[in-house]
Please model this.
Amino acid sequence: MKSKVLKENGEITWALIFDSGDEVMKNLQAFAREHQLSASHFTAIGAFSDLVLGYFNIEKKDYKRIPITEQVELLSMIGDIALDGDQPKVHAHVVVGKSDGSAWGGHLVEAHARPTLEVILVESPEHLRRRFDPRTGLALIDLAESARL
Model:
């Protein structure tokens, strides 16, 4: 993965370009740690050789894993990065298109870029913090907690 700062004016905007074979979520997480991101949002387009989607089952408080083992077009990827404890946590959702024109979507667990993935990421000068919610079993953004940083 390569990165370049596009703009700095309080917010910082990066272009992140993934090469074929790059694992997306691990690289995004490493980038977030390296740059100490704590309140970011991003969008992306490109394609994947394979991926695993997640569908959150609220009763089980766990993700059902949905593997897709074929080349797909990334039609849309949106996500955010917020602090979970003292570490940044990447949260992304995707919609992908298969060769028959069908679309599949969900929480992005893992994916490999092929031939590329183009991400535009914006970091805010503010901070966001996640806090575990026992009702859902998820670490959700807590705006009250974020204001105390």
In short: The radius of gyration is 16 Å. The mean pLDDT is 93.
